[in-house]
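Input sequence (305 aa), recorded before submission:
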Amino acid sequence: MGLDVVRCEVLKNPAAPWLLRFFGGRHVLRFHNGFEFAVDPSTRILGEKLITLAYEGATYRSTGPDDGFTWLVNRSRGEIVTPSGLRFSLESLHPLIFAETFLYDIHFCGFHLGRQLVVDVGSNVGDTPLYFAQQGARVVGYEPDPDNFRMLSDNVQRNPTLAGQIQLHPEPVGEDGEVTFFSGQGGSSGVYAGKGTGRKVRSVSLKTVLARAGAEDAYLLKADCKGAEFQLVRQSELAAFRYLQIEYTADVVGQHPATLLAELRQRGFSRIRLYKHNYGAYPLTQHGTVFALRDDVEVDPTGSP
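Predicted structure, token format:
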């Protein structure tokens, strides 16, 4: 879908971003629901992000009461607030990631997460740790990209009622030892990124993660670690989790998702759902998400415990 089509669907004045890009100046983006957002060359990228998220289904307001559906854009605080009340810096806004988490709701794993332990490998800028914490979970989040970790920490602090439920670590999760991590690629940073700023860092295993959390078992492992998931599924500690939600990137490590699924079954996860989590132009042989339940878990996480 071209940007011109997206702008026409979202804006009353779809030419405004085009005029800004080529002629500069100051323009007002007029969204179909009446929300207006002034942009100039310094805020052009933010304007494009708001347009993209609106195309995914978000509607905005700058004032007025919360109706449970619109996103509050607070320029004076540099914040965007989800319909459920989670606060994020405008700097950290990533339209596709936020759409996955808060519009497509791809991370849903049950209505009752009160004090359950969720291990979040690849916490990015905080969308998933805060999503799980808002549902009552105790979250241990790992995010090794320095820029992402800075925004992640800031976003957690912007939500003080939930911050006490979230523990953050700036390390990659894979195997215990030292690895070269490539940062500066936003959500694509990773050990296998092959571009960006490479630096030697300590990596930790699931055994270390659980020991730090002071737990022998956990409710959910959510992993988005750009290839390292093929290391995680070979570890015996995987069986400590009742549910798995693993986004895989098979092509970056020369693997096939069938290998991932075989490892899951060997570890006691035979109930598996494999699906595309966004509209990206990729085949499931390269990229997708696996949701799996451990064989001895009797309750479907979409129901009541």
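Checked by second reader. The two ends are 41 Å apart (CA to CA).
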